[in-house]
Amino acid sequence: HEHDNEVSSVGILEAGDVDGEKLNEWLRELLATKGVDIYRMKGVLAIRDEPNRYVFQGVHMLLDHRPDRPWGDASRENRLIFIGRNLDRAALVQGFRACLA
Fold first, then answer.
1. Are 91 and 74 in contact (CB under 8 A)?
2. Residue 56 CA: distances (Å) to CA of 1, 4, 33, 43, 90
3. How many C-beta atoms surround the C-beta of residue 86 within 10 A?
4. How far apart are CA 40 and CA 21, in angstroms?
5. Structural contact between residues 62 and 23, judged by C-beta atoms closer than 8 angstroms
6. Residue 67 contacts residue 52 (beta carbons within 8 Å)
7. What angle, 0 to 180 degrees and rounded to 10, lies between the N-to-C axes of helices 89-97 and 20-34?
């Protein structure tokens, strides 16, 4: 069994709300350019003006998202994880931060 050193994970934790349109645009571009290298991604998102958490998951270039339970008194934060090959941590963090409202 050999371990591929090019495979890694990138976790992102950011407080605040996300602009849904900016997020969709970023994810669309990310999957179009890096989708073959992203094996798995998932997370919980705080979408601006939405009372519920949004859960998303993706495998390669397939992405699914849906509303989840209400945030209630919990602090609104975004938690994402990307697993893949040759992931650029700085670019992923910067790209996601550009989606914050």
1. no
2. 32, 26, 19, 5, 21
3. 10
4. 22
5. no
6. yes
7. 150
User: In this structure, how many other beta carbons lie within 10 angstroms of the beta carbon of residue 66?
Assistant: 10
Among residues 28, 20, 11, 17, which one has the least CA distance to residue 79? 11
SS3 77: strand
- Tokens 């609104």: give the residue: 76
Find the farthest-apart pair of alpha carbons in the chain and give their distance in angstroms, rounded: 48
Please report where in the chains the tokens 């975004």 appear, as a residue.
Answer: 78
Give pLDDT tens digits for 39-95.
999 999 999 999 999 999 998 888 899 999 999 999 999 999 999 999 999 999 999
